[in-house]
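Whiteboard transcription, Tuesday session. T.W. wrote the structure tokens on the left side:
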């Protein structure tokens, strides 16, 4: 079956999501287009740094579609610039025909399509794999879309919307064989789709490749370990992704690093003076005071490349419990009343920000309680254990190692869908009617509240003028 074909029962959800996200995208265009794209392409990077600050998200997609290059981190996103290359060519054609840089409208279209298929794939997982009714699946899909940083993901010109739709597609393709076989392997997921999905998903976000491999393991069972399957569906796609990262690093990144090092050597006195001035000037800057100490902090850099490489993104000092309450399950689901969408590394938004109203914590506790009940009811299904394994990867990175823990909510697209998907086990038709009615009322009220609260806050922010950062970059 073609996964991109939208079925008749999926159209109401698809149309409602498209209309909502398209409305948000129109507000994004009105807010940023004149500021970012009235300038020359050579000035676009500076304009983005001065004017575009949407929480911790980056506007790299705008730059890639305007002036193509490997501007994403080539290690964490090895194939992403190349996947966007056709859109860049389309933008150049439209630019030549109209005289207008269409990078932002094209990005809006791309994100709207990602939102459309993310909701459709979510709906299919609930319908075909969990086995719940049409309206219950639609309700949970809208609950998912009502989460604060899922809304933001669908308007932020970063890579997260692409990662989200690919992860949901992997789950939908590689899950169990429907409601009556939810604890059986899906041996059909091992042909051409498995290596392609691993290539695309890891190519967009390298760490998500581990989730695709886990999906293959859960779907294939012991057949996963067959040499032919391992070679074609796991080893070969990962080698392509890693080779792409290595080549881009050698061709694009390394020459720039070497040029910077050479410049620093030939202008040593000038660079040391500037570094001392910057250290004094920016000692109280947000990116200094809001960044925790990484693993290996204080150790000599020479001979300790690991600590100064990937481990420099870790954090050993930010409190874990408070981050979990206020950011992981807090800001990800409900916006805080203050410091709306401020970047913690650019503005003086506190890393740990409490809610002013007690009801926000009540909503958070209720969602977690429904999630835990859903986990208990679905504990015998392979699908649930796959979702929990995926979530464990993200929790290990963000809460355990502290990777991006100071803005963990921007990573919501990689794991937050686990909560409403697990809640789907509350709505399996075999449950007592009184149980089903109570669950529907609770989830309906939660969904309505989150749509009104988060949607209202986001629309209000999009209608406000751009607030410049406290420091000029």
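and on the right, the sequence the group agreed on:
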């Amino acid at each position: 079956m073609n996964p991109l074909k939208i079925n008749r029962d999926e159209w109401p959800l698809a149309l409602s999501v498209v209309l909502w996200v398209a409305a948000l995208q129109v507000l994004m265009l009105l807010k940023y287009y004149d500021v970012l794209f009235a300038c020359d392409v050579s000035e676009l990077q500076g304009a983005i740094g001065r004017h575009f600050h949407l929480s911790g998200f980056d506007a790299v997609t705008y730059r890639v579609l305007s002036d193509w290059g490997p501007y994403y981190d080539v290690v964490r996103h090895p194939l992403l610039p190349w996947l966007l290359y056709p859109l860049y060519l389309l933008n150049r054609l439209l630019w030549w025909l109209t005289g207008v840089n269409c990078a932002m409208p094209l990005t809006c279209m791309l994100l709207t399509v990602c939102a459309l298929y993310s909701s459709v794939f979510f709906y299919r997982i609930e319908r075909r794999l969990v086995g719940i009714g049409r309206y219950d699946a639609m309700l949970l899909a809208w609950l998912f879309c009502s989460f604060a940083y899922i809304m933001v993901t669908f308007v932020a010109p970063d890579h997260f919307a692409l990662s989200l739709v690919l992860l949901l597609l992997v789950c939908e393709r590689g899950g169990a064989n429907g409601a009556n076989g939810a604890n059986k392997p899906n041996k059909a997921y091992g042909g051409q789709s498995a290596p392609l999905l691993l290539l695309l998903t890891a190519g967009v976000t390298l760490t998500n490749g581990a989730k695709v491999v886990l999906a293959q393991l859960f779907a294939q069972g012991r057949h996963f370990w067959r040499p032919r399957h391992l070679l074609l569906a796991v080893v070969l796609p990962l080698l392509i992704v890693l080779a792409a990262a290595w080549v881009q690093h050698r061709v694009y990144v390394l020459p720039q690093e070497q040029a910077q090092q050479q410049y620093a050597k030939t202008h040593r006195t000038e660079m040391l003076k500037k570094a001392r001035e910057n250290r004094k000037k920016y000692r109280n800057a947000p990116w200094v005071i809001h960044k925790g100490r990484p693993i290996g902090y204080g150790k000599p850099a020479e001979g300790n490349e690991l600590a100064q490489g990937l481990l420099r993104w870790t954090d050993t000092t930010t409190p874990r419990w408070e981050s979990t309450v206020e950011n992981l399950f807090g800001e990800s689901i409900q916006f805080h009343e203050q410091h709306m969408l401020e970047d913690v590394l650019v503005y003086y938004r506190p890393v740990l920000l409490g809610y002013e109203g007690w009801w926000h914590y009540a909503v958070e506790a209720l969602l977690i309680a429904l999630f835990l009940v859903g986990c208990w009811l679905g504990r015998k299904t392979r699908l649930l254990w796959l979702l929990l394994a995926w979530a464990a990867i993200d929790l290990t990175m963000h809460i355990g190692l502290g990777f991006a823990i100071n803005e963990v909510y921007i990573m919501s697209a990689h794991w937050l869908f686990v909560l409403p998907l697990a809640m789907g086990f509350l709505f399996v038709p075999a449950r007592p009617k009184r149980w089903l009615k109570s669950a529907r009322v609770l989830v309906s009220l939660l969904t309505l509240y989150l749509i009104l609260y988060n949607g209202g806050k986001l629309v209000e922010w999009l209608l406000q003028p751009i607030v410049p950062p406290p420091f000029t970059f």
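Someone added at the bottom: Residues 227-266 form the longest helix (40 residues).
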